[in-house]
Design brief:
With about 100 residues, the protein is mainly α. The chain has 6 helices and no strands.
């Protein structure tokens, strides 16, 4: 379901949208925002464990993955048809 549909059904608060690039750039700020959205308290010991995990498991620790849709799926990316996400993109995707 799209964000607007969820809002119309009164289910918008059950979901918290997270942009992947923001999660990667500011993981703990994103986690705090998720906890706040759902009215939960992020306990200090849980936050400390998350911080430790992030320190011990940095992104791309073993190199940056390389993706090639054409070779992996034997298709041209332009041939992939995705359902429209216009309302979601209008609300959440920065251009």
């Amino acid at each position: 379901a799209t964000r607007k549909a969820l809002e119309r059904m009164g289910l918008g608060k059950r979901f918290c949208d997270v942009q992947f690039d923001r999660l990667c750039a500011q993981p703990m700020a994103t986690v705090r925002r998720i906890y706040k959205h759902f009215g939960k308290k992020l306990e200090p010991d849980a936050e400390a464990r998350m911080q430790l995990y992030l320190k011990e498991h940095p992104r791309f620790k073993h190199g940056k993955p390389q993706y090639n849709i054409k070779d992996t799926f034997e298709t041209n990316p332009d041939d992939l048809k995705l359902p429209p996400l216009d309302d979601y993109e209008a609300l959440y995707i920065k251009k």
